[in-house]
Amino acid sequence: MDDSNLYIVKGDRELDKNISNTLKGILIILIVIGHNSILTRSIDGLFKYLYSFHVMLFFILPWFYKRKPSNIHQTVNRSVKLYLYYIVFFILQVVLYNILIEHNFSLTESVYAFLRGGHHALKVVTGYEYLWFLPCFCISMIVYDIFCHLPQKGQIIFNILAIIVVLIFINIRYQGCN
To answer: CA geometry: angle at 126 spanning 112 and 109, to 5°?
Structure first.
């Protein structure tokens, strides 16, 4: 047996690929379970519990991959790529939703939903809530790039602030914000 498979994290924050794939698989299963309305309605508290962490863990995983810090050009290119996907799917969904289902298109509400990117604002104009993931992931990766360029003392301060933010949001429940 290879000793490298015995450790979840190898060296400096490098997540083992097999463990990473396993974690992603488990998270995808939890997301599917969370979107199964029959199951989540039949088990009291399951929906709130799953939505308190399952998608957010996808944002945490990249922080454990060892990679060279991005330069500003790479960060901008990745952000443009993610926002292009967001724009295309947003426009496509707004058009299809207003042609096939609702016939009350509002440019003001659409622009607001696009800029805000929140679950409920997006659902009003696109019929779906899931598009929030792309801008949120983009911001997460920008924050990661900034973090990688901070000196060690700055990273420690950043981690302390991140823990404070997490503690605040643990006390503000997901459903309560909706």
So the answer is: 25
Q: What are the tokens at 138?
A: 């983009």
Q: Where are the alpha helices (DSSP H) in 106-151?
A: 107-116, 119-126, 133-149
d(CA 152, CA 150): 6
Half-sphere exposure in the Cβ direction for 88 (13 Å, CA): 6
Averaged pLDDT, 44-61: 73
Residue 157 one-letter amino acid: I
**Could you tell me which residues come within 8 angstroms of residue 141 by beta carbon, excluding any fewer than 6 positions away?**
62, 75, 78, 79, 82
Nearest to 79 by CA among 1, 137, 131: 137
Residues 64-78: tens digit of each pLDDT: 666 677 788 888 888
